[in-house]
Each structure stands twice: as C-alpha cells, then as structure tokens.
Task: structure prediction
Amino acid sequence: MTRHGAFSEENSLAKIAGKRAWRTARIAYRRAPTMKTLAAVLRERGLPAPYAQSKPLSIEELDLDPPGPGEVLVQMGAAGLCHSDLSVINGTRLWPLPLVLGHEACGHVREVGEGVTDLRPDDPVVFAFLPSCGHCPMCVTGRAALCEPGVAANRAGKLLRGTVRFQKPGAERVNHHSGVAGYSQFSVVSRESVVKIDADIPMETAVLFGCAVMTGVGAVVNTARVAAGTSVAVFGAGGVGLSAIMGAKAVGAFPIIAVDRIESKLALAKQCGATHTVNSASTDPATAIRDITRGGAETAFEAVGDGNVIAQAFAATRRGGRTVCIGLTHPERMLTIPALTITAEERTLMGSYMGSCVPQRDIPRYIAMYRAGLLPVDLLRTSVISLGEVNAAFDLLDSGEVARQVIRF
Ligand SMILES: [Zn+2]
Ligand SMILES: [Zn+2]
Result:
C-alpha cells in the first residue's frame, strides 16, 4: 500500500537531490548546447521475463538537446509504470527503438523554447501522452485524443514538430515514448504535451492524472457519458480500471461491478467505489453480472487489453448495452462477437483512447474532483520506487498483483 509515512523524509531528500541535479545539469547546459540526463532506455523488445534478470531497460546517460521552438525542458518529478509501458517491453506495442520509455509522468518546467509564452520555469506540469496540435480535423472538433499529427509523431518516436532530442553521446538518436519519455531525469517535450497544474499537488499524486486517471475517468465521463443510477461493470482492476470505477462512483452509477482475477485488487476496487466484485478466476463474469443487474450491465468497460475479455464484457451487457474498450490489444488481434446482437439488440462497441480527453480541459477538471474528495486517486499508488528499480517493478506489474508503482526522481 502507499508508504505515506516514509514519504515526507524521502520527499524532502528527493527534492534536495533534484535541485542539486538541476543545478549541475543547468551548468552543463550553459556550457554546451546539450545537457546530460539519466534515462531508462529500451533497446530490444520481447526479452523474456523475469525482467529483473533480462533487464530490457538499461539506465544510460544520454545527451539531451535544449528545447527548440514550441518545446519545453522538464525536470521529471515522478513517472508511473503502466501496462502500456509493459506492452512496449513485451512487443505488443511496436514503438521505434531505441526508446526512452514512460508515458505517465509529471515534473517542473526548467526552460522554455522560442514561442512558448504561457509557461515559465518552475511551473508544475502533467504530461499528456498524445500531443494535440489544435488545428487538425480531430482537434478542431474537440477530439484531441485522436489528434492526427500527434499520433503520427508518437508512432515515429518523435516530438510533435518532428524532432528527437535524446542522443547516446557520439552515437545514435534515442526516441521519445509518446512524446513524454517519462523515465528520464529530464525530458524535452512539445508545449502541447504538458498541462500546467496547481503547485501544491504532490508529484507522486499528480503523475497518476497523466494516464490512469485521464484514461479511466475519461472513459466514463467523456466516452460513455455514464448516467446516474445506471449499471456499470469494469473488467480489470489495474490503474485504469480502478480509475474508471472511481469515475463511475463520482457520476452516481449503480451498481458498479469490478471484475478481476486477483482478490487483493478486488478489495482495492471496493475502496475505489465498486459495489460488487466478481473474481473471474472462479466465476463466469458475464453470468454473475447478468444476475447482479437482472439482465446485464448498461455499460461495460474493458481495461485489460485482451480480445477474449472484450468478448466477455460484451456478453455481460444487457440489450441496448454498451461495451467500452479501453485496454490496448496486440495490433494483429481480431475480435469475435455475435454480429446479430449489434442489430437485433442495439448493442454498441465503443473505443476510448486517452479517455476521449481534451487534456488541457480534463486534467485540471479531474484534479479539482480529487481535491473535492470525489476521486480518491492516491489509492492507485501501490509503491514508490527509484529509476534503478524499474526492471524488477515491471515483473510485479506483469504478475497483476499491483496497481500503480511510481518512480520518484
Ligand atoms: Zn498508460
Ligand atoms: Zn490535432
């Protein structure tokens, strides 16, 4: 569980260390066009678990260019370990390598590039893992999570304006994961990849808004627009699924049924707002959910990223029900569901990427909900670790036993 007791001391030590690191780095930055940063780099995908032994992530010193036009330099405060990071390590997500991993992160702005007029050094920011250009057909219709230049840049491992700012000294460029590259002491990112937040939110809390909360809560309030009193089932009680449960509680859904294979995560799901739990290791979830809801859930969320679980979630909905896919499956995975039920029972299958969020609007909104006690986000954080512990921490994530592990810089 969270180690609040150990936090204050660790925190202040980390702050002092961070300031020192920044001072040293800044001197280096002034002396040369680049600065140094320690980062976790993925060079080969598909290495076998346990990762504590195969070490897919190597901690390397990289050169980092100063921010160009429209970019900012951020000193990382915290970064989370998400299943989407694990998917890059195990080869489910095919981002270009070598890559500085990490897409859920927060930190403080240290330098701004030319043309960035609305951020200043020391501003605290949370990263959005898809930069939104603000001009493409998706952005101008309010669908920032589908920004076309943003996704093209992410797929290329580049920042929104086509740049790559990390380099192995004297060797090759190292790509950015989702425009964030959170597992690095410092990162240069597009202005469009950061959202300014209040200064008094602790970094180990703020980080959770970057992926888990934005994706899970957003799926409920933006994608599905769940109504009060309607039934919700959430498959997968990891960081994103638990956030969906919190979102469902915040909007007044009832009942809220959590499905997972691990009892400890079902217990956590109850703390987050689930009214019922189903252990899918021992019970058929679709049958159990149809019993609890007398016919099926009105909205089911899949936060695992598995075709069979999507089919289970679909089967757990009632006539007219909606299944919202949040988890990311392998790109070659096909899905089989009964086609007739789409027409004859008016069932809907919906996708939700980044919670259909507009990060500049939604991150401050969800932080305000957290402050009001509507989203108990700190429950998501299982432990706080250091950058050097990252490989072993991915073994824990792979085991399914933990929600969010957070790297504190
Ligand atoms: Zn994520
Ligand atoms: Zn766009």
Summary: Residues 1-11, 27-32 have pLDDT under 50 and may be disordered. The two ends are 20 Å apart (CA to CA). Residues 4-31 form the longest helix (28 residues).
